[in-house]
Amino acid sequence: xxxxxxxxxxxxxxxxxxxxxxxxxxxxxxxxxxxxxxxxxxxxxxxxxxxxxxxxxxxxxxxxxxxxxxxxxxxxxxxxxxxxxxxxxxxxxxxxxxxxxxxxxxxxxxxxxxxxxxxxxxxxxxxxxxxxxxx
Amino acid sequence: xxxxxxxxxxxxxxxxxxxxxxxxxxxxxxxxxxxxxxxxxxxxxxxxxxxxxxxxxxxxxxxxxxxxxxxxxxxxxxxxxxxxxxxxxxxxxxxxxxxxxxxxxxxxxxxxxxxxxxxxxxxxxxxxxxxxxxxxxxxxxxxxxxxxxxxxxxxxxxxxxxxxxxxxxxxxxxxxxxxxxxxxxxxxxxxxxxxxxxxxxxxxxxxxxxxxxxxxxxxxxxxxxxxxxxxxxxxxxxxxxxxxxxxxxxxxxxxxxxxxxxxxxxxxxxxxxxxxxxxxxxxxxxxxxxxxxxxxxxxxxxxxxxxxxxxxxxxxxxxxxxxxxxxxxxxxxxxxxxxxxxxxxxxxxxxxxxxxxxxxxxxxxxxxxxxxxxxxxxxxxxxxxxxxxxxxxxxxxxxxxxxxxxxxxxxxxxxxxxxxxxxxxxxxxxxxxxxxxxxxxxxxxxxxxxxxxxx
Lengths: 135, 455
Hints:
The complex is a heterodimer.
Chain A lengths: L6 H5 L2 H18 L17 H9 L2 H19 L20 H18 L19
Helix pairs in contact in A: 3-5
Chain B lengths: L6 H10 L20 E5 L2 E6 L5 E8 L11 H8 L9 H10 L3 E6 L4 E8 L3 H14 L4 H20 L2 H14 L13 H6 L2 H11 L5 E6 L3 H11 L21 E6 L4 E8 L11 H10 L13 H5 L7 E8 L4 E9 L1 H20 L3 H20 L1 H15 L5 H9 L3 H13 L3 E6 L15
Parallel strand pairs in B: 2-6, 7-11
Antiparallel strand pairs in B: 1-2, 3-5, 3-6, 4-5, 8-10, 8-11, 9-10
Helix pairs in contact in B: 2-5, 2-8, 4-9, 10-13, 10-16, 12-16, 13-15
């Protein structure tokens, strides 16, 4: 599931951005998952409906690669080893392949909730249309 | 399907589709104008009929039916994807909004057309013109919607199709008669269609070709021409006139032959003969409609088997369903005699049916002919008066030849049919190859040769 993020706040302020970007790069490297060949989106907990659905919506190649990365990382973890350096996830390779889908699903769900709690206004006298409005 | 000589089929459809329940109320005049007014807005062809009444019907008729699809499953996919996610609104929002306005959204496809339409209160016209414009130009064809919402429906439809021997037999008869093009079954005969061919990308390509300016028409009932062209002009602004490929048909050719398919539940035998194109097409033969009415099979009145030759010929097998239909398409048509029932009934009746057909080629009883002509005209007018059928025919006519389907003219052409012409039509049909399809218990069901047909 997507988590609250300060990213937008930071991106809008160039001075803050110039501070934070190197910091985030350092943090992601230090987190160590790249050395196991994983991507940041692989770390999203998948034990819930939304993420399960998002995983189903991945195209065949992405889904295969995801499983491959996880098995490889699991193997490394068992052996108490890191991958050889050329196989580490690069910064470009660490893109968000799952989060956009998760966000889309969350948007769909919240839209459904909004529509479910919609209040319908009666048509005004004299007006031709009678649309409902969202709260 | 563009059938017009089938009360039975019509009734089934009327039950399935709520928008056919449109009937004249008491307060309305008994004779409105049934002529479609034809116009154009933004280069899109329009036709409208300003019928009195509170409910209006609007539809996009795109000539993108199964006949035109480059790979199987596209026409059905396009139909089932209509009113789903567009770049402006989600599927859910479209549903909720149209529910709030009190409307019915309808989609279906035939061999030639995909029809996307809505029935609504006349006041809401702008909303629904906008909605149809969105469906045509802004639908997002996404793989997951296809996988999660469209394909499961197609799977279920496919199962229903497999359990219906008559539908299988009719589709098989079309395949024999026309091979590709018109012969392509309206429902994919195997799920290979969406396992192998249908994906979001080629569906999007197909949609862009289907909703290109020259390929669809907008038809409305209960809407004035000026209103319609005003709103279409405003909403349909992004319709492309050039697309990556065009859906151009080849002139249909009749082949003929025989196909036999084993089926565990139910039996059906379909005999198909070359028929007439639609009045807006080039091969219109009104005598085929009269021939279909003369052969008949189902009675349009109560408590009587009717005057038709086939209902008389099959009086010994009252439990067998038999019906004759003249189905018309833009450039060809098919006269189909469908028999469904127990295998032994079909085995007994099929030779009699062919005999009845041959007797028409010899000579026709005067009274039966007069009745057939009256019935053919009645069915034609009744069919044209029904909103839905007239809309599809009108839209298809506009796309193909710029002519709307005017029922008055059609009725006049039925008046002009003579006995001689019907006899000639029957003779020609029998001289050529028939298309015979048997589905069911193949041990019992007869071969075409056995019942006296050339294949």
